[in-house]
Amino acid sequence: MIPLSAFPTLNAALNATSAVLLVTGYVFIRRRNIAAHKACMVGAFLVSMLFLASYLYYHYHHGATSFPGTGWVRIVYFSILIPHTILAAAIVPLALTTLYRAWREQFDRHKRIARWTLPIWLFVSVTGVVIYLMLYHLYPQP
Questions:
Q1: What's the pTM value of the predicted model, to 2 decimals?
Q2: Counting Cβ atoms within 10 Å, is residue 87 exposed (0-12), middle (13-18) or buried (19+)?
Q3: How far apart are CA 91 and CA 133, in angstroms?
Q4: Which range of residues forms the domain containing residue 128?
Q5: Domain total for the chain?
């Protein structure tokens, strides 16, 4: 059993892994390596779904974690958290639609939506790690 206190670090690692897979998958498709691109993107999706399950489990059992910083760092934190949260909600249907279009071999439609999905998904993954660092390392929780 994973201790509850390990979940924030696990979640950050899953977000970072997703970001690496997304960038690697993008590089592969630019090089026209479709099989490697597909593997990376499916991997990013699976890692992100594992993150979502882990995140929901953690917050169900732990509740919310407040950011204790004050002044300019609090403004920075919430300037990152608010768009992260909004786009995190949007990425689920975007990623599902993007993957569905690839699976159905609707590659023109897949490419059109992927141009939006990739940067949003990457932003959510990277800012998830930044939020973790700010919350648990800049201002460690007791």
A1: 0.94
A2: middle
A3: 22
A4: 4-138
A5: 1
